[in-house]
User: Fold this.
Amino acid sequence: MDGAHWDGLRSLLPAYRQITNVAVKDGATTAFWEDNWTGDAPLCTTFPVLYSHVAKRGASVQAVAKHGLASSLVPRLSTQARTELLSAQNMLSACIQCKANLKKKNILDSDVCELCKCSAETVSHLISGCSIAQSFWRHIGWDPLRIPPAADLWQIEAQADAPSRSPPTMILLCCWNLWLHRHDVVFRRRDPSLRQLFSCREAAELWRWRLPPAQRSDVEYWRTRFVM
Ligand SMILES: [Zn+2]
Assistant:
């Protein structure tokens, strides 16, 4: 599987490696879907529809960490599977190495968000609480206060006049861009930039081909929103 969309998702959760280091050593002998390594239940049980779209069952945590969750799936996902994918990404995001999680592990002394400098950097904060994220949502006509917390993001409902079928995919795109933007600020010392966040306009075009044919025209809506 290739394409910028999947390249993006491949590194969507860079924390995978840290997760595997902490929880399952190097993950080489732990089955990503079938073993209970996340704490609650095997992922194949938690996300049964998504599991039915797995291209290679029995893949190790290490292999999925290396290539990305989405790249372990068949190219065309059903609507339910895409919803479960978003949910799975979000569940794993609780382990993302945002500053709040790192502080809990005593790896960092401070968890203050480097974008707004005034709140703890949790995943939910990055998605909808941070001032620049809120500007992003408002700019596309969405109320950031109606964006669910990260763990419940799969329950997001379309706002404004957005097409009702494709939000899980497009919200994943928005979150991915917010995460990339955060990396630019934290690791590349760039200034927070709303303009940079709207580079997802080009990505939306690439993601079009991962939507079912009947939903591809929805991308036009999102392209008209992702402009400064
Ligand atoms: Zn912030």
Notes: Residues 1-96 form one domain. The CA atoms of residues 195 and 228 lie 7 Å apart. The longest helix spans residues 167-188.
